[in-house]
Amino acid sequence: MNIGQTLYDELIGFFGVGGIIKIVQTGNYGYLTTLEGIQTLMGPIIPLLLLLEIVRAFFYKRFKIDEYKIPFLVFVLNRFISRFISIAAVAFCIGLLERWAIFTTTFTWYWLIYGYIVWELSHFVYHFLGHKVRILWCLHSTHHAPQQMNLSVNFAHFFLEAPYADVVRTSICILLGVHPALLFFIMFIDGFWGSFIHIGENVIKDGRLGFLNRILLTPSHHRVHHAKNPLYMDTNFCNLLNIWDRIFKTYQDERRDIKIEYGITREMNPNSLWDVYFGEFICLGRDIAAAPGLKTKLLYIVMPPGWSHTGDHKTARIARESFITSENSIKKDEIPEFVNHI
Ligand SMILES: [Zn+2]
Ligand SMILES: [Zn+2]
């Protein structure tokens, strides 16, 4: 094997510039006016932004290797195992479920809007379950382990998470009539935006993006999602449009008075690949081993993280609700004083 060639191929693949190089080599610039051509042009944007993020951090002497090391190692690990399982999972679901679709759609702008709303619903279902079912949290927690936000967090995923997410999302979309061509197009937009919302604070400090914060899910919303502050935990599950967060009451704005603390709440070593990748599985294994009876053991697998058979639950919902209650009671205490002044 030619190591130089392999490294070159990996770099070209990572930066997504293979398509552009081909266009330059063949001189077929007309291709850029097609839908695939536009996708080819968008491919390198996120990797180049990541490079810009790292260069800026170097320039301002804020670059810390630890902030990028683990997501990068997870990326390398996943690079070899995850991608192919995921593509196969999507193809399998389409082949299996297309005949059961409630109706069929076509590749038009109005079906694109319908398809995107359905896609966001399917994403909400996968992501919500990833936070509320303990065994699925074991898969998803790798993505939440980094204690800072930057584009490399995109690569921090447990290798089985992508196939699981794709099975849930593809199944729901296909059953609700989203045409496969439409689905692939939506997946592309979603992949791009889903990566962009991880942009670091050293590139875009205020992630609200102005008025866009009211109509789209912005980097600010996703930073809130990655926070372990009690008010922010388990909120903003959507990806581009936060309609389902608003409907299911999981929407949360970034508050200027509550600074985001990234990461997960358990004691962990964020610089250990082993802990980031398998830490939650080990905790679950310990809880199952200590639980009395088969039913309780099984409950640990499906109940939310923090659930305890002793009744001493420490779930995100309880932490958030008690934060809101205590904040409201502080506000109430302030009211009589205000009334007295009148
Ligand atoms: Zn999440
Ligand atoms: Zn994320």
From TrEMBL:
InterPro entries: Fatty_acid_hydroxylase, Sterol_desaturase/TMEM195. The keyword Transcription does not apply. It comes from the Bacteria. Its main location: membrane. It is a multi-pass membrane protein. Keywords: Lipid metabolism, Membrane, Oxidoreductase, Transmembrane, Transmembrane helix. Residues 113-250 form the Fatty acid hydroxylase domain. The keyword Disulfide bond does not apply. The chain crosses the membrane at residues 12-32, 38-59, 80-97, 109-129, 172-193. It is found in: Endomembrane system. This is Sterol desaturase family protein.
